[in-house]
Design goal:
This protein is of the alpha+beta class. The chain has one domain: Histidine kinase-like ATPase, C-terminal domain (Heat Shock Protein 90, 2-Layer Sandwich). It is 52% helix and 16% strand. Strand 4 and strand 5 form a beta hairpin. The protein starts with a helix and ends with a helix.
């Protein structure tokens, strides 16, 4: 997968934007101790600890989403699930990823979990007002995959997001708001996966992640 320089710039801006707040808070905690002294140590240390935790959780998720680690075939589902849960454990979006949901049909494919993590980051963009994300298995005959069920205020895929996801948006027209949609779609395409959005009702968006069914898969599904 070849990436345009503008795409790299937008993606780097997104990562820096998501990390600058907790990292700045760490610096603020240190400055608070230096300026006021021991009377605020407890308060400042809590600020530093909380901000460091947020930074660590985000970096772990970004490493899978954008780094080489997410492309490895040996990436354990339980590790990815834990990283995703920790990322969403604070904030206004709740993630429901059942422990029993092994996703072995999808996770056995190189890059599938990486694509799924990018779908979660896209879901975060969609749920700007907060909401819930539920990960479910797709049980249709002849289909291998999983589905993200997004519920929240205005939980719809904007036309600009949908166009970026499908890859029809020219690179020069991508924005900080649509770069995540674009990257999610490109990862899916690179790893021979499909992402199908649907809106079963107002304030709900479903994102299905589907793998191409091979002859071997067809035998397993009989």
């Amino acid at each position: 997968m070849q990436i345009d320089l503008r795409v790299l710039e937008l993606l780097s801006s997104k990562i820096c934007h998501d990390l600058i707040s907790p990292v700045s808070a760490i610096n603020n905690g240190v400055e608070l101790i230096e300026d006021i002294g021991e009377t605020v140590v407890d308060e400042a240390m809590k600020l530093i600890a909380d901000s460091a935790s947020v930074s660590s959780r985000r970096l772990k998720l970004f490493r899978i989403a954008y780094g080489r680690a997410g492309s490895e075939e040996s990436l354990p589902v339980r590790d990815v699930r834990l990283v995703a849960e920790q990322y969403f454990e604070t904030g206004k979006i709740k993630l429901d990823w059942p422990e029993a949901l092994s996703l072995e049909e999808v996770s056995s494919r190189r890059g599938a979990l990486k694509t799924l993590i990018n779908m979660l980051l896209l879901a975060e963009e969609v749920l700007a007002y907060g909401g819930a994300i539920a990960l479910r298995r797709i049980e249709a005959d002849g289909t291998l995959g999983c589905r993200l069920e997004l519920v929240g205020k205005a939980a719809q895929l904007l036309p600009s997001f949908n166009e970026a996801l499908s890859g029809v948006t020219p690179v020069e027209e991508l924005t900080p708001r649509t770069i995540q949609s674009y990257m999610t779609g490109r990862f899916a395409s690179t790893f021979s996966l499909s992402i199908l959005p649907s809106s079963p009702c107002p304030d709900q968006l479903d994102l299905a992640l589907l793998a191409k069914v091979t002859e071997y898969d067809s035998e397993r599904l009989v």
